[in-house]
């Protein structure tokens, strides 16, 4: 079973140096994703909504999602003010 997760996000207001730090940390984070976790896309805009963008993630078990989410949230918490998550089960 594969879970598809859509995570809408909203950024904090950041200084130029904070934006650069966030970009660097994001690159590092993507290179250290746990096994079984794939970021399918990072969408910088969510037109028609109040969100700054959204991620589409695929994970091969719900238990991995729970572990991943804590790991992930702890790393982005300083520059992301809010998220909303939608979880689905990938069909054929």
Q: Helical element count? A: 2
- Helix and strand run: EHEEHE
Strand order of the largest sheet: 2-3-1-4
Instruction: State Rg.
Output: 13 Å
- Overall average residue pLDDT: 94
Tell me the major beta sheet: 4 strands, antiparallel
Q: Give the overall form.
A: globular
In helices, the fraction of residues equals 25-40%
Beta strand %: 35-45%
Number of DSSP strand runs? 4
Structure, described:
By secondary structure, this protein is of the alpha+beta class. The chain has 2 helices and 4 strands. Strands 2-3-1-4 form a 4-stranded antiparallel beta sheet. It is globular.
Short structural description:
The protein is of the alpha+beta class and 92 residues long. The chain contains two helices and four strands, in the order E-H-E-E-H-E.
